[in-house]
Amino acid sequence: MMIRVVLPAAAAAALVLVPLSGASAHDIYTGVKGKDGLLCCGGNDCAATTYRERAGKFEFLTREQRWVEIPEERITFLPVPGDPPSDDTHRAHLCYRPARDADREGWSATNVFGDIYLFCAFIPPGSI
């Protein structure tokens, strides 16, 4: 009888602890919305990155270590809630997935920059 009580209790405790221990830096993007009011992240689409400004244009470093130009009107110049302080003066956040051939046609083509399909781009205040 004791085993029947202990095992379910242990399993329930494990379920509670797993999400807490599985929390990651990616959790800061939960609920974050871009300029268009839409959610930025659908899983693992977002990551902290670096940006640079060249000839008045902003370029972001992708997860694949390629620079991609993002128009200023697509960048949100606000902090991402929960983003830890950083001494990186060019810290940014980029939310995207790889672009598909179908993305390059119709209305979705406005979200394609280089090889990425952009959801959101952020440059926190103080990083400019």
Strand content: 25-35%
Q: Report low-confidence residues grouped into runs of 5 or more.
A: 1-23
Rg estimate, integer Å: 19 Å
Share in helix? 10-25%
Q: Order of SSEs, N→C?
A: HEEEEEEE
Please identify the structural class as seen in this structure: alpha+beta
- Summed up, the helix count is 1
Average pLDDT reading: 81
Shape: globular
Largest sheet: number of strands, sense, barrel closure: 7 strands, mixed
Counted up, domains total: 1
Beginning-to-end CA distance, first to last residue: 64 Å
Number of strands: 7
Short description:
This protein has one domain. It is built from one helix and seven strands; from the N terminus they run H-E-E-E-E-E-E-E.
Q: Which terms would index this structure?
A:
globular; alpha+beta; 1 helix; single chain; seven-stranded mixed β-sheet; about 130 residues
In terms of topology, how is this protein built?
Elements: H1 2-21, E1 46-54, E2 57-61, E3 67-70, E4 75-76, E5 91-98, E6 112-113, E7 116-122
Parallel strand pairs: 4-7
Antiparallel strand pairs: 1-2, 1-5, 2-3, 5-7, 6-7
Verbal overview:
The chain is built from 1 helix and 7 strands; from the N terminus they run αβββββββ. With 128 residues, the protein is an alpha+beta fold. The longest helix has 20 residues, at 2-21. Strands 1, 2, 3, 4, 5, 6 and 7 form a 7-stranded mixed β-sheet that branches. It is globular, with a radius of gyration of 19 Å. 16% of the residues lie in helices and 29% in strands. The protein has one domain. Strand 1 and strand 2 form a beta hairpin.
